[in-house]
TrEMBL record:
InterPro entries: CCD97-like_C, Ccdc97-like. Residues 180-241, 292-312 are annotated as: Disordered. It holds the Pfam family CCD97-like_C. Residues 232-241 have a biased composition (Polar residues). Transmembrane segments: none annotated. This is CCD97-like C-terminal domain-containing protein. Residues 189-209, 301-312 have a biased composition (Acidic residues). Residues 107-302 form the CCD97-like C-terminal domain.
Amino acid sequence: MDVSENLNMTVSSEIDNIIRSLVANSDIIFKSQQRGDSELNASEKTVIALNTFNENKTSFLMKFGKYLGQDQLNFFDQFTKDFKEIELVLQDLKTNNTKKRNIQVKNRRYEALQQMSKENSYFSEIEMMKRNPLLYEHLVGQYLSEDEKRERDKYEMKEDVTLVKILMEGIERNKAELTRQLQQQTEDSQMEESDSSSDSSDEERDVEEISVSVKSARPSTSRWGEFEEHTIQATKSKKSTPMVTMTERLLLKEEFVSTMHQNFVEGKDSDYFDYSTVDDNSSYDNISEMDHDAEDKYFDSEDPDEDEIRDYESSEDELDIYMNALNQHPAVCQLAKSIDERL
């Protein structure tokens, strides 16, 4: 058996698998039929699809391409060298396929978020605090009273609680505190670098002035940077927690929760969550009818015009609308301004 025969067998096997997947899809219309015509059986559908593929691969892609996955579309790359129109159609299909997959993944994650929020486990205050302790401290933790902290940290004793679970909870909270400290150190170093870069416009004058300042404040034996470091630490120690109203506290907590929700949907929780359990799980396709209609309107069109695509791509989902509204809330803007002035 020569190379060409092997290649033909491979192509035949792959197209057979593709056509089988098309035949199994009940949403595909293989042939226009009149009312009262008998429904096409699997063999008839297979013949129609195979004949279309053999006669004109561009027509095959235009008719069935939107029902193919990314790997199936990649099969047609081998035909683009000789047929430019196939390359153009294929490129458009792959782009739309990627967009469709991204929307599907985002919708599934959002549905999973809704379900897990009701269960009050992954998105409980304690669990979210463990995943991003520094953000929690900035927006929520620093405004809690000692009694509120004790109530928050109180371990809920349930019937299935074991000593091992209690010990694991303690380990996780210690790990969260260590994470917070590391995040704080990273944030502090970034702020110092930002301050340093903003003062580099007149480097020689700045170095001279800083040198004089260090010499006058400390003995000449001090090492470079010690004065600046101690000054920063002293300044931080003098900062006090700004006073905020209960309404402002609620808005800050709402912002924290919304940020954690958005992080989950955007795939930023990969260190804590196995996204494959959601992204590839069709049981999370239980999205609202409105979302289905929007998706169908865009993807069921064989040749959507550019304005429709632009409008669809610029539309915001519930999470984006919620976050934008929250960030533009007058109370949040005033609170952020007030905190900046006090710090």
